[in-house]
């Protein structure tokens, strides 16, 4: 995989396509440092740490804006000093390239600097 996945954009997933295999998901995972492959290769998740609630909230706001721009929406859980982002494509009950595109872009959000 030579293309930088963070430079791609999410494409609408209409279902009817098979989810990525565990091996293919592992290849994409190499471009999304900090994320882990879970649920037998059907989900990726990353936990982010912050110094306080305000920073975690700013990050979650950035994730929300990015998700709207990309048209691909993660599950987000957050509280004082942390945020957890989970991605999977529900229409195909597994992972799609879009999940890794969004994960790579989340890794580059300004609120993580």
Word description of this protein:
The chain has a single domain (20-112), classed as Gyrase A, domain 2 (2-Layer Sandwich). Helices cover 32% and strands 19% of the residues. The chain has helices spanning 22-29, 53-70, 97-106; strands at residues 36-38, 43-49, 75-79, 82-87. It has a four-stranded antiparallel β-sheet with strand order 1-2-4-3. A hairpin with a 4-residue loop joins strand 1 (36-38) and strand 2.
Q: Percent of residues in helical segments?
A: 25-40%
Q: What would CATH call the class?
A: Alpha Beta
Provide a count of the helices.
Answer: 3
Report the radius of gyration as a whole number of Å: 14 Å
CATH architecture annotation name:
2-Layer Sandwich
Strand count, sense and barrel status of the largest sheet are: 4 strands, antiparallel
Secondary structure category: alpha+beta
Q: Span from first to last CA?
A: 27 Å
| Sheet with most strands: strand arrangement | 1-2-4-3
The pLDDT mean sits at: 94
Uncertain runs are none
């Amino acid at each position: 995989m030579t293309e930088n996945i963070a430079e791609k954009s999410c494409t609408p997933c209409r279902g009817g396509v098979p989810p990525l295999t565990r091996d293919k998901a592992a290849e994409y995972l190499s471009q999304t440092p900090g994320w882990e492959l879970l649920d037998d290769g059907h989900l990726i998740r990353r936990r982010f740490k912050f110094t306080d609630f305000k920073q975690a909230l700013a990050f979650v706001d950035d994730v929300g804006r990015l998700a709207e721009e990309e048209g691909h929406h993660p599950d987000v859980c957050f509280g004082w000093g942390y945020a957890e982002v989970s991605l999977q494509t529900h229409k195909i009950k597994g992972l799609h390239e879009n999940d890794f595109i969004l994960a790579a872009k989340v890794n580059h959000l300004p609120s993580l600097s």
